Amino acid sequence: MPMVTYVLPDGSEHAIDVPCGQTVMDGSVRNNLPGIVAECGGSCSCATCHVYVDPDSQALFDEMTDEERELLEFADGAQADSRLSCQLVVTTECDGVRVTVSAANG
């Protein structure tokens, strides 16, 4: 099972096994990590699961949809490496992925 490392706003790191087919958001929510609020439950409509994806990991995920891009345009703290974790589906290649949770979520 791929391991995803979540860097929380307080600087702490949590390495979580996330089953293939689930999202980075699912891994956080199912393990009760703080920071990813996921108000919309993963339907790409709220941007409360905003993360920053390490440059080495960005190519492991599908390209951003127009819907995701529009939501991130209005998200506090959005940067070039911003993604919505509900749109980041974990595959076997994702083992070792690191994401930093935005302090602006929620």
Automatic annotation (TrEMBL):
Cellular compartments per GO CC: cytosol
UniProt cofactor(s): [2Fe-2S] cluster
One function term, GO molecular function aspect: electron transfer activity
Domain 2Fe-2S ferredoxin-type residues, every copy: 2-105
A GO BP entry: P450-containing electron transport chain
Family note: Belongs to the adrenodoxin/putidaredoxin family.
UniProt protein name: Ferredoxin
